[in-house]
Automatic annotation (TrEMBL):
Residues 1-133 form the HTH marR-type domain. This is HTH marR-type domain-containing protein. It comes from the Bacteria. Keywords: DNA-binding, Transcription, Transcription regulation. It comes from Neobacillus rhizosphaerae. InterPro entries: ArsR-like_HTH, HTH_MarR-typ, MarR/SlyA-like, Transc_reg_Sar_Rot_HTH, WH-like_DNA-bd_sf, WH_DNA-bd_sf. Pfam families: Staph_reg_Sar_Rot. PANTHER family: MARR FAMILY REGULATORY PROTEIN, TRANSCRIPTIONAL REGULATOR, MARR FAMILY. Transmembrane segments: none annotated.
């Protein structure tokens, strides 16, 4: 199993390297991680960011401050508890996050999917769907 895990990691990084977007913005890996937390979790505040990326509240606050200045993130109030400040991605923040954490859709379509059979494309989608479902099980435990 150790060999299979190493192989998955190698394949994953190779796929991302070959199919990634060319980045235009200067942004830290930590900032991308914060933006992913904001996108993927519900009603995220500074405390949640600090816990998720395992830094102090003050450090998380400084990182978020820079994202606010770049206008990648904005603050709003919780609908459940209006005393709680919630972080959300702006449209620009969503675009930046997409370019720094997703595969380039044009490369996927024109360089990869167009050259595959329907069965090959479905096989890839099925495998990624299964991997995502199992990853959700891990995250929820």
């Amino acid at each position: 199993m150790v060999k299979e895990i190493a192989q998955i990691n190698q394949l994953w990084t190779d796929i991302y390297y070959q199919l990634r977007y060319n980045h235009k913005e200067k942004i830290t890996h930590q900032s991308i991680r914060i933006m992913q937390v904001i996108q993927k979790e519900n009603e995220v505040g500074i405390k949640d960011i600090a816990q998720e990326i395992q830094v102090s509240h003050n450090t998380a606050s400084e990182h978020v401050k820079r994202l606010l200045e770049k206008e990648y993130v904005f603050k709003t109030r919780s609908k459940v508890d209006e005393r709680k400040v919630i972080l959300k991605l702006t449209d620009e923040g969503t675009s930046v996050l997409h370019r720094h954490s997703s595969l380039d859709e044009e490369k996927l379509e024109h360089l990869l999917f167009e050259k595959m059979t329907d069965e090959e494309r479905q096989s890839i989608l099925d495998a990624f769907t299964l991997l995502k479902e199992r990853a959700e099980d891990v995250h929820n435990n």
